[in-house]
Amino acid sequence: MKLNLKNIVVLISVAIIGLIAVQIVWITNAIEVRKSQFDQEVKTSLVEVTQEIPKVIRQNKETKFFQRQQQLNQGVTDINALINAMLDNTPFQKFSDKITKEQLDSLIQSQMKKRGITTPYIFGVFDATGNHLYEADSIAKNHTSELVSEGINIPVFVDDFMLTQPFISIIFPKKNNFIFKKMWLILSISLLLILAVIYAFYFTVNTIFKQKQLSEIKNDFINNMTHELKTPISTIQLACEALNDADMNSKESQQTFVTMIKDENTRLKGLVDTVLKTAILDKGQMKLQSEPLDLLEIIHKVRGNFSLQINQLNGKILLDNELSEMPLFGDNQHLTNVFQNLIDNAIKYTSKAPEIIISTAKTIDSYLIKVTDNGIGISKENLDKIFEKLYRVPTGDLHNVKGFGLGLNYVKSMIELHGGKIEVKSTKDKGSTFILSLPITE
Fold it and tell me: For residues 408 and 387, what is the distance between their CA atoms, to the nearest angstrom?
């Protein structure tokens, strides 16, 4: 099987799911084991209780015997006491007469504490047919069926003449909470490990896809850069060959080819400068040459630079201006490049005659400049990515749009270096509006 990116992601996914499943099974088994240990500790506690019960019963008998002797010595005759005395040590003596519920509860509580079992419990003592041997309170009555069928129970081994052997049954309403509290550390660590594995998986896959995307962007950039550089290089080479041709020695021809070489050389310089500026921006070494300037003059200048190109395309650049001037401190060259990039994109990314509207306004502490076009627009999935370095929006039917995907990244960086902000609003096939906000620094 060829291990391409998709197969690797599938294998990692299966491995992660398997690890998580194993961890969940382990946690489940650990909880079940802890529950079994809890039940065993409870049974051990009840066994200890049954061994203490005969001692308490003997003490109760001795106390009763002593009390009856005192009553006889004093000449006091209690019919009920005589009847109870006659029933002592017979099968007809009630279990509740041998040991009180409070005494039994005290024994249970003492044994539970010895084993660290501090969660609330409900208990009852029943005969073989499931009847309460103590007068049941409301809580015990409500849990009778649960005590008999689901409770942890153990026979009461007492040395008397009971015809049936009673049994103690006990339940713990908050048993699960108690067990989870005892296991909170190991459960928390397990949960954190699961979350860490999931996050690591997400981070790894996300990084893989980002690296793949970056690799594709890098290849596109290299291809674009190669084609962009080949054109002026080829033109310069042809011009040089023409200058060496004896038939091209007229002054007009020479001047034409020299101008061509100069223009193409300027174009080459511009391409190299674009890449170098991006490298400087990445290193954080870009320094602005701040000077007092009029932002409105820059906009008019850039608008004029594109007038010939716009006229050839039967388009127009409109200026919707509310201000007579826009003074601030800034870098003239970089701010000029910002508006050149925005207008150049508006012209390139349109399938019809370009119509660009530049509007300006002023707030309390900043200038607002909007550059609106009637281009192909930007889809929602691409809108958040257009300011990323080397990212180029798919152009659909426009196959001859040139560029490196550096322009808007440069624009955003320059506006932010001037302390401003930029945002974009766009509708697919209806155009885009870039909104620039620059602080007033007069």
Answer: 5
Which residue among 283, 316, 337 closes a domain?
283
Residue range 199-224, pLDDT digits in tens: 888 888 888 877 877 777 677 667 66
Structure-token match 């291990």, residue found = 3
Q: pTM higher than 0.85, yes or no?
A: no
239 and 232 in contact (C-beta within 8 Å)? Answer: no
- The values of phi and psi at residue 379, to 5°, are -70, 160
Q: Two tokens at 331?
A: 């870098």
pLDDT at residue 399, rounded to an integer: 43
Residues spanned by the domain of 126: 5-182
Contact, 440 vs 366, CB < 8 A?
yes
Q: At 172, phi and psi to the nearest 5?
A: -125, 100
Distance CA 64, CA 256 (A): 133
97: CB partners within 8 A, 6+ apart:
84, 87
- Report the C-alpha gap between 118 and 45 in whole angstroms: 13
Same domain? For 277 and 413 the reply is no
- Do residues 271 and 320 share a domain? no
Q: Is residue 415 exposed (0-12), middle (13-18) or buried (19+ Cβ within 10 Å)?
A: buried
Three-class DSSP category at 169:
strand
The count of domains in the chain is 3
Mean pLDDT for all residues in the chain: 79
CA dist., res. 306 & res. 46, Å (int): 96
Average of per-residue pLDDT across 134-143: 75
In terms of pLDDT, which residue wins out, 399 or 74?
74
Q: Which amino acid is at 248?
A: M
* Residue bearing tokens 């509290």: 181
Task: Give dist(CA 143, CA 120) in Å, integer.
Answer: 14
Same domain? 164 vs 244: no
Q: Which of 270, 330, 347, 344 is nearest to 296 (CA)?
A: 330
What SS3 class is residue 160?
A: coil
DSSP per residue, 6-42? HHHHHHHHHHHHHHHHHHHHHHHHHHHHHHHHHHHHH
184: tokens are 């909170």
Q: What are phi and psi of 396, to 5 degrees?
A: 60, -120
Residue 209 belongs to a domain with what CATH number? 1.10.287.130
> Residue 428 is which amino acid?
K
